Every structure is written in structure tokens, then in C-alpha cells.
Amino acid sequence: MMSYKKMISVLSVSSMLIIASPISMEAAQSKQEVKQENGILKPEQIDKEILENLDAVYQELSGNSDLKMTWERITESPNNLYFFMGKDGNQAQVNQKTGEVQRATWFAKADQGNESLRTAAITAVKELDSSWNVSFNKVQRTFEKDTETLFTSFTGNNIWVSFDNDKVMSINLTYDYSKAPAKVKKGAEQVLQALDAKSFSIKEGTLNKAKDKSSWQFTAYKSKEKRIIIDVNGETGKATNFNQSGKSAGSLLDITDKKFSKFKNEDVLAAAKPLAKKSVRN
Q1: Which of 147, 184, 207, 265 is most buried, with most CB under 10 Å away?
Q2: 282, part of any domain
Q3: H or E segment to which residue 203 belongs
Q4: Helices (H), the chain
Q5: Distance, CA of 211 to chain centre
Q6: 85 Cβ partners below 8 Å, 6+ apart?
Q7: By three-state DSSP, how is residue 17 classified?
Q8: How far is CA 2 from the centre of its chain?
Q9: Closest Cα partner for 204 from 177, 169, 227, 170?
């Protein structure tokens, strides 16, 4: 497969070719005449060079030089962009005037992805937790022209690994709550205690490892509608933020260990309960 730098070069050359061959007035007029009333365009209404350029981009994303894209829905936006939607969730944005691909996302089965990146993802997970039986079932690759960045992610049951170009950017692993470290469970339970949420329970937690920093996120449920999402620092075990029933309830960063030890203090409870009018005294 081409290197990332070579891919950027290919995309740039393809874009220059399209700029040198702008969509003709006749083609544009024809497109307007046959456009469906619901605003959805057919592939045959799109300039051929644009479709060929999209194929070239997706061939690079997939590593398959024979890939030909099939688009099920094409629409226009007020800011001169074409939006392409295809099978398996594939989607792209193309500048109508220049034909440049602004963004393209490709979805496929994991074994269709870049083998070296998939191997790197497995290695990264094993280095984080050697007990994991790493298995991926899906791959997603996204190219963004503005940042000239290629994002890749591999996902499986309770696992997600993302790359920024060819470097591991983030790892997410979801564990049964009983297997989470004691100190981060303590941080999550302190929040529930402060909220007096005795009827809420936590079944699992997700570890996020990014840039040598780790954090955990727990969701405590009472019902599907009633839940509390708690963020905990992976190094310190201290709660950093929480959201109650999907609505932001504030940060716990300013609550010290001393205050955590006095949950019956009304000021501390006020800091935890979003509807309370009192605030923590400095």
C-alpha cells in the first residue's frame, strides 16, 4: 500500500487534474434540468471526473486498486459541496466547483484494512493489557483534506483503537466493573455517595489510554432514562466530572480529599446536585 505522504501526493495531483478540467456549463445546466424534486442527485448527474477522483481516493483508503464506489444518495449543500452516501456507511464531501475531495470515510471488515496497522493495534492493546484476547471486526478510515490527516480505527467487542496517520492515538477497552482498579472504582463510588444515588449501579467501565494518560468512564444506571456518567482520572483515581441523566452537572476537580471525606456536609452535596442552589465554599 502507498505511504501516507505518497497518498497525499496522489490526491493533490488528482485534484489538480479536476481543477484543470472544470465542470462544463452544459453539464451543469443538464444537471439542474434533470435534478429530482426532492433534491437528490443520481450518479449520472455528477461530472465523470469527480466520480473517478472519488474512486481513486477510496482505492487508497482501502488498498484495493480495483475498487469502484457505488453511491446510493447524493445531495448538494448551500456551501457548494456534494454529499455522497454509499453502502456500508461510506460517505464523502466534494467541492462542486473544484472537484476536490474535502473528506472521505471508508468502512469495511477488519480483515480488509491495512495489515500493518491492524498488527500495530493488536500490539498496542497487548502492551496495555496482556490479558486481552484482541479481535477486531470492523475498520474505518477517514481522510481530511484541511488537515491532510488520515485517521484509522479498528473496533471489536469492547475494544477500539485509533490511529492518526500511522501512530496509535487512542485505545478504549471496556471491562466488567469488578475488574476495574480499586482506586478508580472508589472515585466513581464517591460520586454516587455524594449524590445519594444508592439505587444506581455500575456494571462496566471503559479505560481510555491516550498520549500516555489514562482515564476511566463509568455509567451508573437506575433505568434507561436515569443514569449518571462519571469520569475518573486513571492515575489518581479521583473523579473529574459527571453528567446526570445526560445533562451536565458540573466538575469535581475542585473538591479536595478533605471535602470528599465529609459527604454529609450540605455544601459538598450542593456541588454534586445540579439542582441545588448552594455552592462549595472556597
Answers
A1: 184
A2: no
A3: strand 201-210
A4: 4-20, 25-34, 48-62, 115-128, 182-194, 257-260, 266-272
A5: 16
A6: 71, 72, 73, 74, 91
A7: helix
A8: 24
A9: 177
Structural domain containing residue 231: 180-272
Its pTM surpasses 0.90 = no
pLDDT for the residue numbered 17 = 34
DSSP state of 211: T
Grid cell 466530572 in the structure block, residue: 241
Q: What CATH number did the domain enclosing 205 receive?
A: 3.10.450.40
Dist CA 20 CA 275 (whole Å): 60
In angstroms, the CA 145 to CA 11 distance is 9
Quick one: pLDDT at residue 7? 52
Distance CA 247, CA 227 (A): 10
Instruction: Tell me whether strands 213-221 and 81-86 are parallel, antiparallel or unpaired.
Output: unpaired
What residues does 175 pair with on adjacent strands? Answer: 205
Residue-wise pLDDT for 164-222, tens only, equals 999 999 999 999 999 999 999 999 999 888 888 888 999 999 999 998 899 999 999 98
pLDDT at position 197 is: 82
Q: Which of 174, 150, 163, 65 is nearest to 119 (CA)?
A: 163
Written as one letter, the residue type at 215 is S
If one counts the domains in the chain, the total is 3
Give yes or no: residues 135 and 187 share one domain: no
